Each structure stands twice: as structure tokens, then as C-alpha cells.
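> tool_call: predict_assembly(chains=two)
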Amino acid sequence: MTKFLLLQNYEGGDGCTVPMSDWAPQDIQAHIDFQIALNKELAAAGELVDAQGLAGPELAKRVISDGTAAPVVTDGPFPEAKELVAGYRMVDVESEGRAIEIAALASAAPGPGGVPIQQPIEVRQIMSAPRSDL
Amino acid sequence: MTPEPEPGLEDLLRDLAPQVLGVVVRRSGDFAAAEDAVQEALLAAALHWPAGGVPDSPRGWLIQAALRRLTDQVRSDQARRRREAGAAAEPPAGGASDRDDTLLLLFMCCHPALTPASAITLTMRAVGGLTTAQIANAFLVPEATMAQRISRAKQRVKASAVPLRMPAAGDEWAPRLRSVLHVLYLIFSEGSTSSVGPQLHRVELSSEAIRLARLVHELLPEDGEVAGLLALMLLTDARRPARSGPGGELIPLADQDRSLWDQRLIAEGVALLARALARGAVGEYQLQAAVAALHDQAARVQDTDWPQILATYRLLERMTGNPMVALNRAIATAMVHGPAAGLDLLDALDEPLAGHYRLDAVRAHLLEMAGDAAAAAEHYRVAASRTTSVPEWNYLTLKAARLRRGQPSTAQPSTGPASTGPPS
């Protein structure tokens, strides 16, 4: 089994250019229901390690320190807010193929009018300890 | 691996845990070592008693087992002499000493010199009798992480020389007891946060906090604030079945199906509170409980006694000066005197509650009551961007979207996601 982190940011996909705050309520509800159902499905399949949404860019902070002087802390939201991570799923799966399959499901989450938003999902393998036969 | 004892046995072990630890700490004078030894003794009991049967004096068995482990662990001559002298005397059974031992532990675990996180974990382990694995599971952190947190908390107890003695009656007693109640309250409110995924056999933090509050109430039956905290927990927990929908979505007080409320808990909480209030010495927790009781006793949302809730929040605000209480008073004011009166009160809170999503949510709610859908939608949106809770984000985002589309949101105006905010 291999662990993958499936990351999504605030960037809309080709299927949706409208921010969620402007969606119709029933579309927001359908999107929320989809995410919950997907998590349940992955948990039932024994593939879900963790799934979390992150608090909004307004609460984000960026910290830079040279190790001696007081750190420089910048408050969000940042100009490039769309690139911030919005949430992630960690899955533990048989193959990269399966991770990509799950990412495809997540990318096709319903948007306005139920149209798949095609949001880009970044699939990142989690590095592990070397295999014993290495 | 931690064995899973059968429920009856687990209850017995957890009831005995603080009593046994109290005795062993008193004998050894070393909290950290005593705690380890008692955990091992409890583990041994969980392993052996199901097959071999529960001994005649389970408490005595556990004390002997723990003391034996202590003796095995530390080899210093002086320490051994002290312990052997202790172990030779049969521990007194039941009575006042159990009570004092448990109280001593509580006051030590909740000592103000400890951080809240340390106090919470120590209390759940030493007084609550939970294993590291169970506590880790309750807080959704890896067991190794929790083990480390507990071990550091124990080191802190040692380093800060927190005394294992009863606080003196008078000036010392009240603030120390307040620390204990605050820790229990923190455990309770932690329990109302939800999480991802199915949590089979997970220790419910709110139930655990109630169990501990019951224990403290048994130990200090005459204390009004202890009774008030227990009542507040029961009256809040009574609404738990109605507080969220099948998908974990948040259902505000005004929209809850009140037939799902646990009437047994409500009756118990109301009776507790009535007895406490009758004794005088009204405190913060009793007043919070009084508000919860007023909500719980309204058969329909329109039956809510808002004037009485408003009067209670006034009293509470005068007592605490807490801006979160002032925020709740603004809601009650709006319900009694109209939304404009409530909105007026919010202006004074812009500074103390700057950036807090609850202020935006309440402002949105009162604007909605006042019929200003556009402004309400905008404040719901801002509130959503500032919350750190998924169900609240969903709820606030949906409210904003409905108002923007001119859809009636609910039959009754809601009182916001959490109508009674936490004290402190």
C-alpha cells in the first residue's frame, strides 16, 4: 500500500469560474453532500487516512525567520490566495492508478447546476522509509 | 495492545483508578512513578480478572499490585523502606479517605501552574482512569503523541513542584476549585467539536466530562458552582441528538426537532440547578445553566422565555464582563426589543471581538431579522470565511447563499450556530 496526498487549492476548474459564495444554495448543498459521501466511500473501502478542510485564507499567516531576529509574520489573505491549499485527502491505496482514480472523482465534484467543476487535484506520493531489501 | 475489558469491569476499574492512584501517590510521594504503576496495575486487572474473577477487594488488589510495581521500578533503599512500611499497613477501605484522595488528585491535575492541555490529559488519565490510547483516540491524535504529552505534563508537575495537598479553605479554595471546573468545562466543549470518519468505540469527551463533573458533585455536593457546571453540561448535552443532521450538518437551536431532546437529562439538570440556586451564592456556571434550562423548557421555539434569558445574561455580563456574554445578550435583546436594539449593542463589541466569526454571524442574523437581506448575506459570508469549523462553514455559507437568492431561510429566525457561548 502506498500513501498519497490529494491536494486541492482555491482555484476553480474549467467547469466553474464562479466563487462558491455565489452558487445557488442547493448547489452548495449538493457539493457538500458529495464530499461527505466520497469520504464515507473511501473510509468504507479502507483507503481513507485523513480528510480535512483548512480554515480560510483570511486566517492564514506566513512566517519567515532567520533564526535569530524576531520572525516576520504576514497576515492573510495573500494576493495569490487561489494557490493556497484549501483542503486535502490522504489515502492509502494499492497503486498510483487508484490514487488517480480517486483524484478524478474529487475533481468531478458537482458545481453550479450540478456540472462537474473539474477542479485540479494535485496527487503527491508520500515518501516512506526505504524497503528492507534495498 | 490495550485490552478492551467488558463494560462492567471497565466501569469498575475506572471508578477505582483515582482512589487507587490517590493512595499510591500519598505512599510514594512521586506522582509520575505512581501514575505509571497504577496504569500497569489496571492493565493487569483488565487482563486477569475476566478469567480469574474479580478479587474480593478489587481496590486492595490494585493498590498492592501498583505498590509492588513501584517497588520493582525504583531500587533506592530509602524509597523502598518508605514503601514497604506503607504496604505493610492494610489500606483503609472506603469512607472519607477515598473522597480526599480523589479530590487531591483533581486539585493537583488541574493546578493553575499547568497548561490547559496538560491539565486536561492528566485529569482524564489520573482521575478519569482512561488509557493513553483512549485519550489519544478522543482527541484524534496518534497514541505516541498523546503518550509524550502525558509524560511532559508529568514532568511539569514535578518541575513546578505542584503540591499534592488540599487547598486551604478560604481564599485559596475558590480559585483552585474554579480551575478544576474550567478544565472539566474545556473537556466538555472539546467534545462538541465534530470530526471526520466513523469513530467506533471512541470515548465521547462530553460524556467523559459529565462523568467527571458527576464525580466532583458527589465529592462536593454542597457547592453551587459544581452543581451549576454539571447542570449546564446535562442541559446542553440533552440537545445533542437534535444538534446535527444525518450528514453532520449543524442545526441551530431554533430549527431543532425538540422531540429529540433528552427529557431525562433536562429533568435532572433542572432539578440540580433549582437546588443549587436555592442555596444562594449564584455563580457563572449556574447562570449559564439557567439560560440552557430556559431554552430546554420551551416546548416550541416561540415559547422561549426571552425576557428571562435577557435578565440572566445581564446578570452574567455584570458578573464576568465577558464580551461573548455581551454578544449573547445582544441576541436576547433583539428577541425581546427588536433587531435594531440588538444591533445597537453590537457596535460596542467591534473592538473586543474583532475578527471573531461569532460577531459577524450574530450581526448577520440580526440584520436578517431586520429584513436587510443583502447586508445579512454579506456578514454571513464574512463569518464563514472566519470560522474554523466545517459544519459552521457549511451552515453560514448556505445562509449567505439563500439570502442572496431571496429564499426564505427558515420558518423561525435562528439564534446563530451556538446560542449559548462558552463562559470565560
